[in-house]
Amino acid sequence: MKPRPRPWLRSHLVELALFLVVVLVASAGIVWARWAAPDEPLERIAIGAAQPDDARIRAITCERTLPDAVDAAEEEAEEEAAAPPLGRVQSSEVLACPDAFDQVVVDYVGEVVGDVLRRDGGAWLLVNDDAYALESGPLAAHDAHDGANQGLAVWLPTEFLDLVDEPGNASRRGDVIEVVGRIHRADPLDGGGLTLRASSAELVRDAEPAGAAINRPQALVAVLMTLAAFAVVAWGHRNGRLSVPGLRTRRRLSKRR
Amino acid sequence: MLFRPDRDDLRIIGYYIGKVLVGLAAVMAVPLVVAVLQGALDDVTALVCGISATAGLGAFLHARLVTTKSLDWSHGMVIVALSWLVGSAMVAIPLYLSGHFGSWLDAWFDAMSGLTTSGLSLLQDLDHLSVPMNLLRHLTHFVGGQGIMLVVLTVMASSGARVSTLYVGEGRDDRIVPSIVATSKFIWLVATTWLVAGTAALWATGLVAGLSPGRALFHGVNIFMAAFDTGGFAPYSTSMAYYHSVSMEVVVLVLMVAGTLSFGMHWELWRGRARQLVDNIEMRSLGVTALVTGGIVVFGLVRAGTFDTTTALWRKGVMTLVSAHTGTGFAFNASTLYVTDWGLIAPAGIVIAMALGGMASSTAGGIKAMRVGTAATSILRDVRRAVQPDAAVVVASTTGRSRRVLEDDAVRSAVTVTVLYLLTFLVGAVAGVLADFSLDQALFESTSATANVGLSSGVLAWSNPVPLKLVYLVQMWLGRLEFMTAFALVGFVYAAARAKV
Questions:
Q1: Residue A38's pLDDT band (cuts 50, 70, 90)
Q2: Measured distance CA(B438)–CA(A164) in Å, rounded
Q3: Which residue in B49, B243, B303 is closest to A221 by CB distance?
Q4: Which domains are seen in chain A, by residue range?
């Protein structure tokens, strides 16, 4: 003999089904709003052909210098400092082998994002060289997900600050600059931070707006969901089960509950 | 024996979850106002979707399941456990619609991370995230840090309801004043006072650091919420290293320490009882563990040759340690450097500090100083017993807000929760290793998630397998609720499922 559903459960099955349908429709609406969002990536920034010294960069090994080998490492760093610029590097390479790049003069290209933190003699910049910076632009404008940001802290002397007009934000890709400077694994002037102190800089591309198009499907879903929420509140208020500030509740809660 | 929950039980649970959701919808209205003022239409519609869904569901549950029946302990525990799951899922809606997440799961992960004040993030392209969405993320810290149940408790005047179970369910056991509602209001008073003072200090130091007045306010508010609530989100991907500012770091240091103090300690300090800073067992425990782990980190960094100046050791090493021990999770250098530049000993010290955590009934996570202090006192008592004559009666006591004799029950409870934390660290580490990460990195990340810290060694990424993301998500939830509340939910579901319909 089949177990019979409890009366209270049976009487509320329709209500439960209706509730689930509403939840599913709302979820589908949200997914659709995201799926139908405008996809307008910015133009990829061409930053020139591979540098002659690229092979030298790739040959860098990631061995950490222990204190016993500090003297040898210092000599090596001095030789490196006297050498010509290493060529173009990416922040990921520097962060993966900070010791290998310490005191090395490099060429670095990236988008200025956030704020220009002006101090005496220059400013601190966050310069990213990830895909959002050099390829597709701010993520809100397109659907090319490529992970987290990556960049370097760059100290830009005052004479080059005019190059940076508009750092990147949600609605624009910021100025893209190319700097030549020295990597400091533990910069004493920044309390031990990993920095790149620029000795020269030039503007590669001006800032450009991104994501101007409005996500209309999302606006439609927002309107429908707002109406649905108001309908629920009105229903609750009408039944005297929900008090709304500024409105009198029509029927009080029954004692039975 | 577990009693099968009946209709009234479900009604009570749904009714209170409805209240929580309405409260969360109100919180989401704050960034909506900012979005409207900025004219950011996509952010407006994303936030309206989130608010409508949350408020609509909350109002429906509230109205449909309205009840005047009182809560009991099991209801409270289940409500708290479910509220954190459902609430974070709803907060994930506007985050998902921002377009900065690869999937809704990633957005849920961030919402859970925000509410549990963890600070781990799967958000992509943070450096181009809009101001309203950034504010929403940091607001989740502020609300979750105090406890989302406090949103309900503060506005509920129903003195007859046994709302204290909700308070305890969120991992708090320190009732500051006799009335639980008054305690909740005091917690909000403390948080708001610090909000004003901390934001003002960060705004001023932000100006000195080179920010414009408007931007300094934006950074100040967000960094305050992440620091005081020991959260760890930051407006930019380089976290605190973005600012290159000693003065901001000093303010953040004070806020992180303030956040890791229990609200009971704030109450004592509020009343001018500074002596508690020395006498309190948790303060002593924190002091000792901070010194020991600090010593490990500094030794490790010197040994590895990472830093050779006192300034660098302080601004990178010690600040990271404080960030870890308080459960904040601010990074003071790029996360990959823990692996590529810090050697092995210093990160090990950071892992230990993360695991130990801050004070009980604070916004911090981790095992908590109270449990560490209780366990240490118990060990000392046993040693004294061993060396005393058999007839000697050895009694140990601990000084919290008042002096108490150390009971075996308190020791058992402290050790039980500690073991649960250690097991959870281990499970998360195994999950990380199974996903092909090295054991040290996996343990670092697992500890960070469970202790609600948010420091990352580079393991966590949007490309992680879904099971690993789920493991970390559950770890954050378990760590914030300190296990028992989550176990109560499991027991409730089991009881509901096992009986015949």
A1: confident
A2: 41
A3: B49
A4: 54-209 (2.40.50.140)
